[in-house]
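SAMPLE LOG
Freezer: B-3
Tube label: C17
Construct: single chain, 417 aa
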Amino acid sequence: MINQRRSSGRSAALIITLALAATALTGCSQSGAAPQATANCPGDPIKLMSITTVDSPAQQTPEIWQGAQAAGLAVTNDCELGRPVQILTCDDKLDPNAGEACAREAVSEKVLAVVGGTSTLGDSIWPILTPAGIPWVGNTASSSLDNTSDLSFPLQNTLTILTAAAQGAKSLGGKKAVVVSLNVPALGGVIDGLKSSITNMGMDFADPVLMPPTATDLNQYAARAIASGADTIIPLVSAALMAPLVTALTEQGVDFTQTHFVGASTVLSSPKLLQTLGDKANGIYAAGFVWPATDTKNTGIAQYLSEMGAAGFGKATNTNSSIASWSSVHIIADLLKGQTDVSPANLVKLLNSSGEIQRPELAPTDFSKSPFPASSPFSKLRAFTDDIVLTEVKNGTSVPVTDGFVNFMQPFTIVGT
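STRUCTURE (predicted):
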């Protein structure tokens, strides 16, 4: 069992360079040269890489890099592993070629692991990481190889989180759901799996509404979702398209107190999104495996906010995906304490035998086994928790409406609505 690490909160010298600019040819950006040895933490750096999308019209999530960087800085400041931790960053640009370049960079840099991220390019990245034995810890499993690779240790899974969202809608009284999704190959299997999950829980499933990632006018897609007659809308679109989708729906008369708009907290709990939408966001529900960053009573969230502040990052970066990236680095650090073998192979061994990981900001997670029965289609996925928190946007803030993390494989009680 892994428990939360408590930070000393010291403001030590910044020895992890927080450079975020990607190189033009490969999309990769190291976090600078190896950090210089300091009096309290000398030695060669332990390298981790954070891969996410930064330079794409459809998605920009640099906060995923920042979560990893803040945690790496804190681990180094406390010299928890006897050596500094260096976070390398790489922009996959939502382009398979750039994703492959990130993977090649990870291999050439001999990173211990890739951490965090919401990349949908796993099927391009894994064929390069796998021969090198490099694990990916804290990713969001969406592609086929994300869900089948023995080196994939996700904290979030696209299919299970959206199934949890649908279960939340059913708990709110929803009877028919429609998915509004990007029309990309990686999400086809997610939609098929979601259809099966939704029908198995007794809800009707309307024909999905598919849009290209380059869509700019979302009115026609909003109109099709409304015309489906569904009382539940489940979005599976990028952060850049979420605000236009919500705006198009509300301008066509959708009332979120009557129609359940419920999806993944990885996008729907973003402070930037909520600020952009203003009052339009009220009534939106989100399911997540990460506790919302607005609840500072959660000790894990309090530690995350403290370390993000120490690294110089603002509140707009505090997304669930940033928290997951941050948590991934701390999980690795906790596992490696006292280990003389700091290799990818040993890290994989430790992840597979860690037992339940208990961090207050995360749903209970056990990488050694599936929490789902063998009869469940989820049992074949790289999905390691069946607990979620459901939030509702109230006055521009994501507020938990479940009593802690709850099991999403059955209807659950909504509180405070």
